[in-house]
Structures are given as C-alpha cells and as structure tokens.
Write a structure and sequence with these properties.
Layout (H helix, E strand, L loop, with lengths): L1 E8 L2 H14 L3 E8 L3 H6 L4 E10 L4 E9 L7 H4 L3 E8 L3 H10 L7
Antiparallel strand pairs: 1-5, 2-5, 3-4
C-alpha cells in the first residue's frame, strides 16, 4: 500500500538534506517533494543590507536641502508571515517504509510528522 508522510522543517536546507537521505538510504520511496515560502529568501538577503532615509532639513524659496540617514537593514522590515522559512515535506512511499522514513525525519529535526 502506498502512503504519504508529511512533516515540517524550520528551514528548507534541512528539508533538502533529509529528503536526500531518505531517497538514498530507504527502499520503497516513490517520490519526495517540499513546499516553502520563497519570498522569505528576500528577508534573508536584507540581513546584510543598508537602509537609506532621506530627511528634508531646510526649505527655501528656490530649492530645499536634504540629509541622508544611513542605518543597517534588518529582517524586521518584512512582516513575520512573509519571512517565515517553514518548509513542508511530503514523502510518498510503501507502508512498510513509513517507520524508517519517520525515523530519518525525526532525527533531522522535523516537526509534526504524520
């Protein structure tokens, strides 16, 4: 009988490693797949960036002067649901392989294995 095992990981890199181990070491696995929030990668890239804020300082009749304030960027600029890197993993395998698949997922730090 064919069964689907699902689990959640905190990061997609851990999920990729777990799926590779499952495909290489467990017999009876038909397919593996994962789903994660790809917009969270933008939040990771912002960690090392810089934000520039333009502040008007003086207004005259002909022109105005501005100042630029520079500050390090952080992940807090992007709201929490969009920066979550939670990854869902799905493994389709034979029912005899389910305990082995669950053991590998558990050892790799998976949550909510069902």
């Amino acid at each position: 009988m064919v069964t689907r095992v699902s689990a959640e990981f905190e990061e997609p890199e851990l999920a990729e490693i777990a799926m590779k181990r499952i495909r290489e070491n467990i017999k009876g696995v038909y397919s593996t797949s994962m789903i994660y929030n790809r917009s969270a990668d933008k939040a990771e890239k912002l960690k090392h960036g810089t934000l520039y804020t333009i502040i008007p300082t003086a207004v005259t009749t002909h022109n105005y002067m501005t100042a630029v304030m520079e500050s390090p960027a952080s992940r807090d600029v992007i709201p929490e649901p969009q920066r979550s890197r939670k990854t869902s993993v799905y493994v389709v395998c034979e029912s005899a392989s389910v305990p082995n698949v669950s053991a590998v997922l558990n050892s790799m730090g998976a949550l909510n294995i069902s």
